[in-house]
Structures are given as C-alpha cells and as structure tokens.
Amino acid sequence: MSSLSHIANDIPKSLISAEPAQRRKALDSTKAGPVPGVILVAMITAVAFSAHNVSGFALFSPMIIAVVAGMIYSNVLGTPAHAKAGIAFSQRRLLRFAIVLLGFQLTLGQVVSIGAGGVGIVAATLGATFVFTITLGRLIGVDAKLAHLIAAGTSICGASAIVATNIVTDARDEDVTYAVASITLFGTVAMLGFPLLAPLLGLDQHAFGLWVGASIHEVAQVIGAGFQNGTQSGEIATVAKLTRVAMLAPMVIALGLMARRKSSSDQQAARPPMPWFVAAFVAVVALNSLVAIPAEVKSAMTLATTIMLTMGLAAMGLQADISQLRSRGLRPLALAFSAFLFIGGFSLMLVKLA
C-alpha cells in the first residue's frame, strides 16, 4: 500500500489536472465566438425599440436609447468576457453593412430636386462646419480624434457619420459615445426650437425646410422639425438632409487619405485601410437611382438599416466606461455646442442670401 501511495505521489500533478484543464479549455472555446455577444446586443436593441414607443422617449431614436442602455448595462452589471467577440462583431461589421444600406434611402434625383442652389448651401455648410469644428477643437485643446467625430456628427448626419468616421479615425469607444451623446443633445434642441423660430425669421416653407435639412444633425430630428412647419418644408428638409448623407462618402474618403498620408511619415504606424463600405454605399445609391426598387423592399431595407445601426451603437455603449467619459471634461461639450451654433447660423445666412 505504501509503495502504491509512493508511486502516486511521483506522478506529476500536471498530468492529473490535464483532463480537467482540457475540459475547461473546451468549455471556454464554446463560449467564445460572436453568438453570446450578438445575443446581448440584440437584447439591448430590443429594449431600445420598445422604449422608443413609450411616451416621453419617442423624441429619441432607438440608436440613442441603445447607446445609453448599453452604457448602463456595462457600467452597472459589467460586460461578460465571453460576449466581447460578439460585441466587436456588432460594432464593426454590422455598422459597416448598415452604412452601405443607407444608400437605399437616397437617389440622385432627390439631390437634384432641391436645385443647384440647395446642393450648394448644403455642401458649403458641411465643409465650413467641419473646418470650424476641427479648428476650434485644436484651439481649445480637444483631442483631435474626438474633434473629428464631433465635426462629422454635426456637419453630416449625426450618429451614422460618427460611426463611419471612426472607422478611419480609430478613436476610443468612449469618444464615440461622448460624440453621439453631445450630438443627440443639441440636435434635439434644434428639432424642438427651430420650428418656433421660423415665423420670427420670416422663413417660408421652402426656406425653412432647406435650413432644417442643412443644419440639424440626425435624419429623424430633421424629419421631426421639418414636418412641424408643413408638408412642403418636411419634404424639402428630408431631401436636403439625404443630400448631406450622400456627402458622407467623399468626407470619409478624404479623412482616410489624410490618415494614410499622416501614417506614411511614421514607418511603424499601420496604414489605415481605405473604407470599402464607402464605395459600396455609392454603388447602392447608383443602383437605387437607376433601378425601380419596390416600396416594400425599400421599407424592409430601412428597417434593417435602423436595426443594425442600433445594434452597433448598443455595442459601443457596452464598451464605454463612464469614468473615462467624465475624464474628458466639458471642453468637448463646449465644442459640440459651438459647432451647433455655427451650423445653424451659417446655414441660415446662406438660405437668407439665396
């Protein structure tokens, strides 16, 4: 008996524990992969859509609610480690595909319908706002990547532009969340306040619609503000806003080229990839302009786009650390507020002069 126990003591403990370790490794491998994280993101997305239908929350798009819900979940309950892969999948691949599907909401004919003057006002406002925001951000000491996100969200199309721009700027998740939150705040102020200013500023339905479409951040906010002043102003506002959405492609390409040029001076820096989804977005717009797509298919595409954008922003919320958001201070918020005032004032001036 003593000899047997002596032999047992001589067996390496690593051999004894090898089988349980292999079982644990196999179990961990089943937990890895995108499925658990995608399920978590989908649950938060479902909560966001449900909350959007509750009185008092209808002013906020499901995308915005999803960001907040994801932040609350991750900072209160914590994000499970085995959900990380699915969260990353939702934040990257789903968002890219959703931006491509945005092309089904725009045709070249819609852009032409607001006239050369309208397109010029939209383009000039977008460019001036972007340059103003980047310059002011540099002057007041806001991180360059965060300033780029705020500039894109203000000048182009809110949360969609922020997540598209982040693919080439590669900012922190907390910066993306901060930018989305600030853009949502001031876009909501514009949605509620601009219709009250229309009679005071002497704007007819055409001028008001063009002003709203050229200046308010989110598509949903533009629609909400535009139609408060009449059907004509709502339609013009929507087309003007979609024209801004179309300008997302050249803006992201320009940012990608700038990032490549900057990284080429550093031998150790990785070359940022050119965003393939921008080319796909342009192709979808062209397809939508040339081919008559049934209304039912377009409606389904719009819903799918909203769902995927919401899932992507829910994933960002899940990776946002509130303590790091607080560490950014009030300067980025002041930058977003200044950009909001600039885009509203600059576009109004151009509309008045047109």
In terms of structural class, how would the helical and strand content be classed?
A: mainly alpha
Distance between the termini: 102 Å
Give the beta-strand count: 0
What characterizes the major β-sheet? none
Write down the Rg: 24 Å
Strand content: under 5%
The quaternary structure here is single chain
Please give a structural write-up:
This protein starts with a helix and ends with a helix. The chain is built from 18 helices and no strands. The longest helix has 29 residues, at 173-201. It has helices at residues 2-10, 13-16, 18-31, 35-52, 62-76, 84-101, 108-113, 115-140, 144-169, 173-201, 205-215, 219-226, 231-246, 248-264, 276-290, 295-318, 322-327, 331-353. α5 (62-76) runs parallel beside α16 (295-318) and α12 packs antiparallel against α13. It is mainly α and 354 residues long. It is globular and about 55 Å long.
Topology:
Elements: H1 2-10, H2 13-16, H3 18-31, H4 35-52, H5 62-76, H6 84-101, H7 108-113, H8 115-140, H9 144-169, H10 173-201, H11 205-215, H12 219-226, H13 231-246, H14 248-264, H15 276-290, H16 295-318, H17 322-327, H18 331-353
List keywords for this structure.
354 residues; mainly alpha; 18 helices; disordered N terminus
What's the short story on this structure?
With about 350 residues, the chain is an all-alpha fold. The chain has 18 helices and no strands.
